[in-house]
Specification:
alpha+beta, 196 residues, 17% helix, 2 domains, 11 strands, elongated
Length: 196
């Protein structure tokens, strides 16, 4: 007859083997969860996104332009830095008419394409406090919005008017930078690591 080894700390070998097999199953389950989480992160990271704030403001070289600081974007899976600069409105296209001496506004979306080209897209002319932002052009990352309103005493002439003109009110809003979103994977707790 063989000698049976029983360690008071672990019990007999069959109990140890049961614990090892349970741990092995737990490790397989945790590995599958980690693989799923990595896939979720990679899916989020492959999309286009604003990665740092452009800090939109009235231009300093020209008060008729919108200034941005250097900022980072991800387009087509590539991260790049967009240089600080100033972008002007497009003559006539970006004007705000004054059909009846009432205040009017437009929400303009600023966006950037791969390579750093910045676009200003105007929304529709609206009554004060009724402006709606237009869609961001396809393939571009939204930097933020500029709301430009006139008080009804004169139009906003995108070619010549400074955003600091007395009849103009302008508000600058940066878009939110990306937070890792996607699916919200369950956290691994100590209970997940406990052998059954």
């Amino acid at each position: 007859m063989g000698t049976r080894c029983v360690n008071p700390q672990f019990g007999d070998m069959s109990n140890i083997m049961q614990q090892v097999n349970a741990l092995r199953a737990d490790v397989v389950a945790i590995r599958a969860e980690v693989i799923n989480n990595v896939a979720d992160v990679l899916a989020v990271q492959s999309g286009d996104a604003l990665l740092s704030l452009p800090v939109l403001a009235i231009g300093t070289s020209s008060a008729a332009e919108v200034k941005n600081s250097a900022f980072d974007i991800r387009v087509n899976g590539q991260v790049e830095t967009v240089a600080a600069g100033e972008t002007g409105f497009t003559a006539t296209t970006d004007d705000i008419a004054d059909p009846d001496a009432s205040g009017r506004e437009i929400v303009y979306v600023l966006s950037v394409a791969q390579g750093g080209t910045i676009t200003i897209t105007p929304g529709t002319i609206a009554a004060l406090a009724a402006g709606v932002a237009p869609s961001t052009p396809a393939g571009e990352v939204k930097m933020g919005e500029v709301l430009v309103a006139h008080d009804g005493s004169a139009i906003f002439n995108a070619t010549t008017d400074n955003l600091s003109a007395s009849h103009i009110t302008d508000t600058y809003t940066d878009s939110s930078i990306e937070a890792l979103a996607g699916s919200n994977p369950a956290a691994i707790t100590s209970a997940d690591l406990t052998a059954t």
